[in-house]
Amino acid sequence: MNADLLPIQRKAQRPEQPTQIKICGLTRESDVQAASVAEVDFAGFILYARSPRHVSIERARMLVEGLSASVTPVLVLVDADDTDVRAIRDHFSGTDVRYLIQFHGRETPERCAAVSQELNRPYWRAAPVAIGPAQADAAATTQALLDYARPYAEAQALLLDSQVVQAIGPNSHGVGGSGFGGTGHSFDWNLIQWSRLTQNAAFHLVLSGGLNAANVAEGMAKARPWAVDVNSGVEMRLPSGELQKGLKDPHAISAFIAAVRAADAQAAHLPANPHASLDLSRSGLPASQLPTA
Question: Fewest CB atoms within 10 A around its CB: which of 45, 55, 131, 203?
Answer without folding.
Answer: 131
